[in-house]
Design brief:
This protein is of the alpha+beta class and 221 residues long. It has 2 domains: 158 residues, 3-Layer(aba) Sandwich (Protein Transport Mog1p, Chain A), CATH 3.40.1000; 44 residues, no CATH class. The protein has 4 helices and 10 strands; from the N terminus they run βββααββαββββαβ. The radius of gyration is 18 Å and the shape is globular. The chain starts with a strand and ends with a strand.
């Protein structure tokens, strides 16, 4: 998973300046699209996500991604993307990647990180750790859960168990009362190690300053 080398800038009026470099293979969902244009934007997204697909695939997938975009937009997420990469067997690896921000009551980033770590550690199902990134202190939180997939959604017509993983990293802004939240969700657990490495590489690029070079702005109005 190689990085694109192009900064992705979060241009959300509700979020202080923030940017990062995403790997190639990231496809940003149109969370900034107007509700009336969401389906057409999702159709364009689907064609980009599955360039070798056909009209049947695009038409059937577009409503799903329109609904997913609506959920992410209503949640106030500043950036949402689907990651799609080829595996060694000719298949594909999928995961979702989102970025949001919440207000913080803490005076410093160190204080915010300490409080977040303490709160997350209360859940025994969490693997929470304090980490230090180039942009400052942060807290990572990893959960692996088994979910039940309904019979109507499986090829066998029977319920199935599915193992899923989530990585969340909370990064306090250094000079603003906010915490950025990077979240990765996937069911491709056989590639969990690679997805963790990819997430770590993205986090190393997070910055709250002005990016240098070309940038890809992601706006929300």
């Amino acid at each position: 998973m190689e990085t694109s080398g192009i900064p992705t800038i979060i241009e959300d009026p509700a979020v202080p300046p923030l940017w990062f470099v995403a790997p190639e293979g990231f496809h940003a969902l149109p969370v900034d699209a107007e509700p009336s244009a969401r389906l057409s934007a999702a159709d364009e997204f689907t064609r980009e996500l599955f360039p070798e697909g056909d009209a049947h695939l695009w038409d059937s997938a577009a409503p799903f991604y329109a609904g997913l975009t609506e959920v992410f937009a209503d949640a106030g997420l500043a950036y949402s993307a689907m990651g799609v990469f080829s595996d060694d067997n000719g298949g594909v690896v999928h995961f979702s990647f989102t970025v949001g921000a919440i207000e913080s009551p803490y005076a410093t980033s160190e204080e915010a990180a300490g409080a977040l770590e303490q709160s997350l550690r209360r859940d025994p199902g969490n693997d929470s750790r304090r980490i230090t990134l180039p942009c400052g202190p942060a807290v990572s939180n990893i959960t692996v859960r088994e979910v039940t997939v309904g019979a109507e959604l499986t090829a066998t017509g029977e319920e199935a168990k599915l193992l899923t993983g989530q990585i969340q990293v909370f990064i306090p802004f250094p000079s603003k009362p906010f915490v950025a939240i990077f979240t990765v969700d996937t069911a491709a657990m056989e590639y969990w190690g690679e997805i963790c490495d990819m997430t770590a590489a993205v986090l190393e690029t997070v910055s709250f300053g002005d990016p240098s070079g070309d940038a890809v702005p992601v706006s929300r109005t």
